[in-house]
Amino acid sequence: MNKNLIIVFVRTPEIGKVKTRLAKSIGDQSALTIYKLLLKHTAAVLHDLSFSKVVYYSEIVRENDYWDATIFQKKVQKGSDLGERMQNAFETEFKEGYEKILIIGSDLFDLKPTHITTAFEALETHDITIGPSLDGGYYLLGMKELYHTLFKNKKWGTDSVLEHTLKDLKQQNIKLLEALNDIDTFEDLQQQPELLKKI
């Protein structure tokens, strides 16, 4: 087993349950279409990378979907909020014997394989690697050991997440990656003409 693991957090792609902020501008059906395209993009970005990979679903594991079961392990998120669910996923996978673990979301059309490889390389010389998103959160978090404080007392989904996360890590050696724009609002979508024309 490759000791470097990528965890992907995904929502079950159901109408009315994904991209709710975006749906206010473009409707539930178009928001679902965009989310499915983002899932497909994320799966394609990760497909050929040699690291171990696991998809954590928000509700139930889907068998025949974008995530090829011969490449991606499949599990279900556990916890009452995003912080608890991420912490539980990291905890589970460190216990499985992985040494470097990244977690990413599934709503980044700008994500490229180099972001993943750069993040793992950064963990050779840093305690933590973070990919900041332009909305004040982060699209990637990587570590070699579990820092529980990162997952506590955060207002998930707000523009303060990255700031408070960095405050929690004052003692650690952090590598910040390139900032990217995740797709949460119509303004975000307008930055991606290729996606925009699909709705």
Itemize the secondary structure elements and their pairings:
Blueprint: E1 4-10, H1 20-26, H2 28-47, E2 52-57, E3 73-76, H3 82-95, E4 100-104, H4 113-122, E5 128-132, E6 138-143, H5 161-168, E7 174-176, H6 186-190, H7 193-196
Parallel strand pairs: 1-2, 1-4, 2-3, 5-7
Antiparallel strand pairs: 4-6, 5-6
Helix pairs in contact: 1-2
Search tags:
199 residues, alpha/beta, Spore Coat Polysaccharide Biosynthesis Protein SpsA, Chain A, 7-stranded mixed β-sheet, 7 helices, 18% strand
Give your account of this protein's structure.
- The chain has 199 residues and is of the alpha/beta class.
- It has a domain at 4-126 and 181-196: Alpha-Beta Complex (Spore Coat Polysaccharide Biosynthesis Protein SpsA, Chain A).
- Helix content is 34%, strand content 18%.
- The chain contains 7 helices and 7 strands, in the order E-H-H-E-E-H-E-H-E-E-H-E-H-H.
- The protein has helices at 20-26, 28-47, 82-95, 113-122, 161-168, 186-190, 193-196, and strands at residues 4-10, 52-57, 73-76, 100-104, 128-132, 138-143, 174-176.
- The protein has a 7-stranded mixed beta sheet, with helices on both faces.
- Strand 5 (128-132) and strand 6 (138-143) form a beta hairpin.
- Helix 1 crosses helix 2 (28-47).
- The longest helix is centred in the N-terminal third of the chain and has 20 residues, at 28-47.
- The N and C termini lie far apart (40 Å).
- The relative contact order is 0.18.
- The model has no long low-confidence stretch (mean pLDDT 94).
